[in-house]
Design brief:
- The protein is an alpha+beta fold.
- It has a single domain (3-379), classed as Roll (Thiol Ester Dehydrase, Chain A), CATH 3.10.129.
- Helix content is 24%, strand content 26%.
- The protein is built from 11 helices and 12 strands.
- The strands form 2 sheets. Strands 1-3-4-5-2-9-12-11-10-6 form a 10-stranded antiparallel β-sheet. Strands 7-8 form a two-stranded antiparallel ribbon.
- The longest helix has 16 residues, at 300-315.
- The protein starts with a helix and ends in a 15-residue tail after the last strand.
Amino acid sequence: MTQQSQEAREDFVAPMTEGVINDVTLEAFRRRVGSDLHISNIFNTEANKDAIRKFADGIGDPNPLWRDDEYAAGTRYGAVVAPPNWYYSVYPTWVSQGLPGVHAFHSGNDWEFYKPIRLNDVIRPVATFTGFDVKDSKFAGKMVMEYQRAEFFNQNDELLAKTDLWLVRTERKAARDTGKYHHIELPHPWTDDELERVEEDCVSEEVRGSKTRFWEDVEVGENVPPVIKGPLGVTDMIAYCAGASPVQLLAHGVGLRLYRRHPAWAFRDPNTNALEPTSGAHYTPGAATPAGLPFPYDVGAQRHCWIIHLLTNWMGDEGWLKKNYAEYRKFVYLSDAVWISGKVTAKYVDDDGEHCVDIEHHAVNQRGEDTAPGRSTVVLPSRDKGVGPLDSRL
């Protein structure tokens, strides 16, 4: 081994980089506000059938509109289309930037959807750093709330969707010292009967599909049939990564070369001695523990995908998800289950003349914690007016 290669290897012997939040790092961060960000972790760019199907598999969504050519040919779309949450497979809507060594937790998205992702569309994302706030938290003391905006354009330069999002940035050592979540018993101690009920709920979801849901038939106060996820396992995380790649999935020499260019992006896992990305906190304890968490946890975007899965199940093929908002307030750990449900809170005709339904939704785990409260607006066809949301979007 040459002296140069030995020195390069020793750069990685240390554990995960420990960044700090102070006046110097915040001033450097402030100078970045307003800048367009380079998106280095783009995964899917073309909405081909394989990319759409693998994404649907990765979030556990059986809807035939995303995967069945014969079924989709009989819909208004005329072919398989991508669900609105597929944008998360282009990139997770945020870029890791600034505050080196300060951990980033994706904490929510506020979406607006304008046009569908058609089969074989080529998607171009744009990312902008829009600002930040400094706050105090019980999790890690001083923290930074970072704000970004993601926009998605197709090959015709049409804006298909945009989202404002936020991340919590915390010092890893401070989070470990606080140990806020270390009282939780993990993995969760399920009984056989409990597991049977969870899994039966999971396979009993209702996909509205071709049975059109008309605006006139919706009642304020009615429940949206739930979608259940869990218990969350390693294969669930692998499937999501294979379909959406929210983390830098690079093997062997390809990964090593990247980590040598960007040492703060990786650490040496004490359990395997392998170099892992810091984002491996979603599937390996060696990355979760240094970030102050007791166990690996889900990807925030992954949970948001489950929420949108609930809504597309309910609205059917003729519905349109116009707006969608969710906050990621608790971690969903490996071994957790989540019951995602909703309720209709309002119905009205908006200023665009569209027949809208507002839905409040929740993602409650087995501990009774609402891990992702939010709200959405769905546009439905009107039987009386003879119009539907796809009329102007296709």
